[in-house]
Specification:
By secondary structure, the chain is an alpha+beta fold. The protein has helices at 4-20, 27-30, 46-59, 125-133, and strands at 31-37, 60-64, 67-73, 76-87, 100-112, 115-123.
């Protein structure tokens, strides 16, 4: 028998796999329709999240999000991961140069009714920008 903690961790693994494999339609069963992403400037909603990751795939070829650590307690799952790929599309004002990127991020997800309800993130954007500008 699995526990909610194990189910929650499995949900996060499914989410990361869906992103890496660019199967964003799987978000329909993983992410709540009114998903609240607490990133500055980010609007709520599952469709916004699909658009964000579709854009990330357009910018970073071979996008991978390897997980280095995953910890769950109650309705929350914490993930320490990398964002890896080849910068092959313009990223804001940064023109694509084909540089490899490998930056770290910390994610916190709250799960409700078997779906992601909320998300918080702290990402190493300094490393990411340094790598794409090199």
């Amino acid at each position: 028998m699995t526990t909610n903690i194990e189910e929650n961790k499995a949900l996060v693994l499914r989410f990361f796999a869906a992103i890496e494999n660019n199967r964003l339609e799987e978000f329909d069963s993983i992410v709540a329709i009114n998903y609240d992403d607490h990133l500055p400037g980010q609007s709520p909603g599952r469709e916004v999240l699909k658009k964000y990751f579709s854009g990330l795939h357009a910018v970073f070829k071979y996008l991978k999000l390897p997980i280095h650590a995953i910890i769950a307690e109650g309705d929350k799952v914490a993930v320490y991961n990398s964002v890896q790929g080849v910068h092959n599309g313009d990223y804001g004002s940064f023109k694509a140069k084909g540089n490899l990127v490998d930056a770290k991020a910390f994610q916190l997800y709250r799960i409700e009714n078997g779906q992601f309800a909320e998300h918080w993130e702290v990402a190493d954007f300094i490393t990411l920008v340094t790598q794409i500008q090199a």
